Amino acid sequence: MCFAADPGLRTLGVHASAGIRPADLLDICSAAPRGKLIYSARNTIWAIDWGDMPLAVKAFRVPRGIRQWIYGCIRTSKAKRSFDNATALISLGLCTPKPIGFVEYGSGVRLLNSFYVSEYLPASSAAFPLRDALLNTKTPNRESILLAFGCFTRRLHDLGVLHRDYSPGNILVVPSADSGDEDQERHPTSDHAQRAVMPPPPSKYRFELVDLNRMSFQPLSIEQRMHNLRLLWAEDDDLRTIVAGYALQTSHPLVALQRAALRASHTHKFKATREERWKRAIRKWIPESPT
What we know:
By secondary structure, the protein is of the alpha+beta class. It has helices at about 20-30, 65-75, 80-90, 130-135, 140-160, 180-185, 190-195, 220-230, 235-245, 255-285, and strands at about 10-15, 35-40, 45-50, 55-60, 100-105, 110-120, 130, 160-165, 170-175, 205-210, 215.
């Protein structure tokens, strides 16, 4: 993870229910690199304990070149978008790790370092990414999980939520003896959301969304909904099961939904595979730069 040298504080935000001060949030971000590293690639995520709160701190990569001015003057930073989207999801009665706050550092009008802080579900908990269920056909209650996930996705879409990184690594499955009641206690649903969307049927699982910086909130067509499922990279039979759960309590024909989802999935896989072949070919013929 690359950090800019001596950036100045631009802005920060603390969630009203977080129970911490702005100064605490700055200390949390400063202490994060001394915590447990749980992810390091384009962005970096650490897990730390702050008092009795297990927290996840996500440090976004410093924007390059002109993007520093774009994020500093025109676009909202990924850290603030993550915070705002998490707050919006909770207001709709949907689950995501509780947002704590965000911090932005920069120089002049340029955005440099930025952080998003949320609660952390430790590895010792029963939560696991949906990816595990899709890849492991021996996952206990696998079909029930996929059906429940399809129902959850329908509710997500009915509420007008489009997660543009809806990959199985960004969806946590949390087994629960009574997921419906626990969901309401964890994140109470607003009256508006209750009136707009039918409640989900009882399920032994709830689903939490992470990696929230690329989301939009808008009415969604059937085509947009099924197109969103392409990012799951699911096998055809698994996708049929997910769509079967999606079709519960709807008037849309199951077969038509499955065809649309499969068509979007096949197209996405074909394009992604073709792009990867081109990248491999380019890397093969272009010599590596000397070190």
